[in-house]
TrEMBL record:
It comes from Niastella populi. It comes from the Bacteria. GO terms for molecular function: hydrolase activity. This is 3-keto-alpha-glucoside-1,2-lyase/3-keto-2-hydroxy-glucal hydratase domain-containing protein. Residues 34-230 form the 3-keto-alpha-glucoside-1,2-lyase/3-keto-2-hydroxy-glucal hydratase domain.
Length: 233
């Protein structure tokens, strides 16, 4: 499928150019393909708190965006200032031991939390989390909807590479070069999962065709870098 070919092509280009090894920069090939940075490695320009909540839980450390697990008095998800409909998101992330977070897309600020409207790509310490995890809670899953086709996350403390593709109703989750979730919004099968699961009371969940991208603060212990996006026509 077109999306899969795009990812393989991007990986090939990255492997053949030393420039790609630098953090929070774009290669000439990426710029030509329409990619741009969502995180510059220095500050949180382009991001703000969900519903403009006050927060002190996020900081930038050595080119990494870090959500603190300690010494935070006010917590909030970070969301992109801009909204996106069809896009390819590329992002590197790692969790501290026992940490839990997520990347949430097509988010609207109409609820108390970003996940009430936006589907979540789960990020979690699969092996070291304090509770037993269901398949739909593992890294790469469409949280509470779609379990990953295989477990592909690295251990806590090691960086993973994620790609999320959203084109109209079609969605793909990739983790470390493997496609772990693929689904279509608004189909009878999708509606059945929503109406018989965790989101049955969340009427706006997954309904937006455009929205913010959120990085979840679920108690911290999550690191991000190399956050890049390109719009898909």
């Amino acid at each position: 499928m077109l999306f899969s070919a795009t990812i393989l092509s991007s990986a090939f280009l990255g492997a053949s150019h030393p420039e790609q090894e630098k953090n929070n920069v774009l290669t000439a090939q990426e710029r030509q393909a329409g990619w741009f940075l969502l995180f510059n490695g220095q500050n949180t320009n382009g991001w703000r708190a969900y519903n403009n909540k006050p927060y002190d839980s996020w900081e930038v450390i050595n080119g990494q965006l870090y959500c603190k697990s300690k010494d935070a008095k006010e917590r909030a998800d970070l969301i992109t200032v801009d909204q996106y409909d069809n896009f390819e998101l590329s992002i590197d992330w790692k969790v501290d031991k026992g940490a839990n977070s997520g990347i949430i897309y097509r988010v609207e600020e109409t609820g108390g939390a970003s996940y009430e409207t936006g589907p979540e790509y789960q990020l979690i310490d699969d092996e070291g989390y304090s509770q037993k995890l269901e398949a739909w809670q593992k890294s790469g899953s469409g949280y509470a909807m779609y379990p990953p086709l295989e477990l592909a996350a690295k251990p806590a403390g090691e960086y993973n590479h994620t790609t999320i593709l959203v084109k109209d109703a079609h969605v793909e989750h990739w983790l470390n070069g493997k496609k772990v979730v693929e689904y279509e919004f608004w189909t009878p099968a999708w509606k059945e999962l929503k109406e018989n699961g965790k989101w049955k009371e969340a009427k706006a969940y997954g309904m937006a065709k455009k929205g913010h991208i959120a990085l979840q603060d679920h108690g911290g212990g999550i690191w991000f870098k190399n956050i890049k996006l390109r719009k898909i026509n």
